[in-house]
Amino acid sequence: MKQDETDVLVLGAGIVGVAAALHLQQRGRDVVLVDRNAAAGDETSYGNAGLIEVASVFPYMFPRDLGHLLRYALNRSADVHYQLSGLPEFMPWLLRYFAASSPERAANTARAALPLIRQSLVEHEALVAEAGVPELLRKTGWIKLFRSEASLGKSVADLERARSFGVTADVLDGASIAAREPNLMGRFSGAIHWLEPGFVPDPGALVKAYAALFARKGGRLLRGDARTLQQHGGGWRITTDTGPVTAREAVVALGPWSDLVFKPLGYRIPLGVKRGYHQHFTTWGNAVLQHPILDADRGYLLAPMNRGIRLTTGAEFARRDAPPSSVQIDRARAMARDLFPLGEAIEPQAWMGARPCLPDMLPVIGRAPRHPGLWFDFGHQHHGLTLGPVTGRLLAEMMTGQDPLANPAPFAAERFG
């Protein structure tokens, strides 16, 4: 069989892998994307709130106040749920997450991520324009609702800190909330309308549009099993449905499945997952939702997707491949119907996905320390859609010897020993 050759293999056709492939392609590399699915954007990249979170300058760290910890320990909330059967597997990771969430270490995470977060929308805008899909990026921002004065006050204080990084937002009272979202129901202490973030009404379609751009520019998406990757003749080889493909370099961008490649190679990177669920609904009457809405004190989000109103849950801690649980989505559905006139469910079952997370809430981007030609680009936690294009650019700059747009040191795999 004739050997198929390319410059770079990118493993994983979610937003992170597709964006990395596009940026490498822009820099003159011949790239082959490899995924277990026949199309791009069908896994983690499909199921999210659709936010390009350019205003999220503070990371999602483990809470340290006693009230949150007790509520989570009782396992009765919608924003966080855990499966007891998975406790032995995810508890060591949670302890590392808790340790990395100290004020000093959280500040280090925020400083490292800031240049990527603030550049994220610009990178998406460039790809959206080139892909010719302006309808898939809206400039509505999103609204965070508060039911208690305490939670509102804390977030307003966080907003004041964020303003020093150029973040803009409006603090809303009850009348302002009703003016922007007249179909919401209930009483609120207030809200914050984060003005800058972009909103993608079909994240899966956006990734497919980027993948189509990649194909129009000469790239190929092949179906294959990432676990067949092996060193070969000074480079890397993988088996695909069309036969083996070899390359000088390979990029692991497999999100929550990245350990299927790096563990057999001897890397002890503490990759964990936060699982999440979503389901789409019709609306009753003429009700319209204009913005993504986070019910902050109850821990769920509603987003006006093309398919319907998407109800998304918070984080579930469980084994990555454990069967789905309906607990979180059932809790969120009941509360969401008190906020907005949701109609019938469009899908019979909720979708489940997994966010790939490192304890310090920073991705791993850069060289595999002990394997020449192998690169990592995974662990984007809650910000995969947000960061995919900008980390793809950072990785491509590193791989092609250009000056990187941000300091890559905080994202190195070596930080875990």
UniProtKB/TrEMBL annotation:
It comes from Rhodopseudomonas palustris. It comes from the Bacteria. One of its GO terms (molecular function) is oxidoreductase activity. One of its GO terms (cellular component) is cytoplasm. This is FAD-binding oxidoreductase. InterPro entries: FAD-dep_OxRdtase, FAD/NAD-bd_sf. Residues 7-398 form the FAD dependent oxidoreductase domain. Coiled coil: none annotated. Keywords: Oxidoreductase.
